Amino acid sequence: MNQKNHTPIVIIGAGLGGLTLARVLHVHGIKSTVYEAEISSGARKQGGMLDIHEYNGQLALKEAGLFDKFLEIINEGAQASRILDKNGNILLDEPDDGTGARPEVLRGDLRQILLDSLPNEVVQWGHKVQSVSSLGDGRHEVVFTNGSTITTDLLVGADGAWSKVRPLLSEEKPKYVGTMFIETFLFESDIRHKASAEAVGDGAMYALAPGKGIVAHREPNGTLHTYVQLNKEKDWFDTIDFSNSKKALAHIAKEFEGWSEELTALITEGDTDPVLRPIHTLPIEHKWERVPGVTLLGDAAHLMPPSGEGANLAMLDGAELGKAIIANPSNIEEALITFEKQMFSRSAAEAIDSEEILDLCLGESSPQSLVNFFNGVNLAV
Ligand SMILES: Cc1cc2nc3c(=O)[nH]c(=O)nc-3n(C[C@H](O)[C@H](O)[C@H](O)COP(=O)(O)OP(=O)(O)OC[C@H]3O[C@@H](n4cnc5c(N)ncnc54)[C@H](O)[C@@H]3O)c2cc1C
């Protein structure tokens, strides 16, 4: 192998997890290269609002030396939460009084802070992994679909749910949990969709019933970003013609017949083509035997139902792996043992919680179950 193509530390995936790792290493003078499938940072709109928690995402940002930059991109007031029933009655309303521990930021803004904090050459865009293989002695070869090939001493799979690196460590594949999220956007809602804007309020709104829900966040400029949630098998969606967005949305809205109009408008009035986001998971205690020279972090390691923790966990993983390497640069295997031990127990606990949260939202006792959760009622009683 040509020595030119050898990179000591390779991170696959420029999501929040991979970039946090690259940044923490960079702060301590350790070089890494991030290979990302997308052709540029602006190739795709980056999700919506993320609440960044004191006990994971914020710790990672401090470790990355980016906490001050993070404070600058917080959307004030967006921590407000409310729960509605299907008739639009407010069952719980928690305004953002400025004392919350989980400020909301746009995912794209957060990713940009990380990208801006790295030298340009660190992220290699347009490098989609085609295959990975072991060369022995803990080294690996990565082949990209653009025809290039590299070798590395440490390969980190931060490449999300459908990781190409994971098969080096584990035979597990993500499984569909039976819940589909359908993403819609309403723009300029304060002018064009006043009733829906009022129903959503200043932050997050959960309108729920057993097996279905309409969950929306207010984003800057009056954008309402909605995840319609339905417990349905994937083939139910195969019967819908998504080439006609309005018809497809009307079809989905039929599942919400009898719900109040300001809620169903979040579906039927969508300004963009609806995007299906099937929810997949890895097993709760997903782990692997140590394989020299390779590890995983974030969704690649522990994919779970959305519970507001996934991006936070990916960032903490990145920071913790960075710290472990910095503490033990001459013995990467020791560093990986330390990192994985902590990650396995941290992510198993969060995976259990995330399944419970999905049940609180869409289970038989919804929406009261989520109200009780917010109110701190002991659910075991
Ligand atoms: C509908 C929904 C809502 C969510 N809401 C929240 C929330 O509110 N809060 C929260 O904390 N979490 C949330 N999550 C979870 C969160 O999105 C993930 O846990 C988080 O993005 C994981 O980060 P990551 O860096 O591990 O992976 P990703 O963000 O998936 O990044 C992986 C990167 O790898 C790249 N990549 C993939 N394959 C390849 C390849 N073959 N070659 C090269 N590059 C590749 C991708 O392009 C991507 O840039 C939500 C998830 C979903 C589905």
UniProtKB/TrEMBL annotation:
One cellular component term (GO) for this entry is:
cytoplasm
Query: By its UniProt entry, which SUPFAM superfamilies does this protein fall under?
Result: FAD/NAD(P)-binding domain
Pfam entry (one):
FAD_binding_3
EC?
A: 1.14.13.-
Name any cofactors this protein relies on: FAD
Q: Per UniProt, where does FAD bind?
A: D51, R107, D299
**Catalytically driven reaction(s):** a tetracycline + NADPH + O2 + H(+) = an 11a-hydroxytetracycline + NADP(+) + H2O
Outline the extent of the FAD-binding domain. 7-327
Record keywords, A-Z: Cytoplasm, FAD, Flavoprotein, Monooxygenase, NADP, Nucleotide-binding, Oxidoreductase
Binding-site residues for NADPH, renumbered to this chain: R44
The question of whether Flavoprotein is a record keyword is answered with yes
Keyword Mitochondrion part of the UniProt annotation: no
Q: What does this protein do?
A: An FAD-requiring monooxygenase active on some tetracycline antibiotic derivatives, which leads to their inactivation. Hydroxylates carbon 11a of tetracycline and some analogs.
- Tell me its family: Belongs to the aromatic-ring hydroxylase family. TetX subfamily.
Q: How does it assemble?
A: Monomer.
Q: Which HAMAP family match?
A: TetX_monooxygenase
What is the protein name for this chain? Flavin-dependent monooxygenase
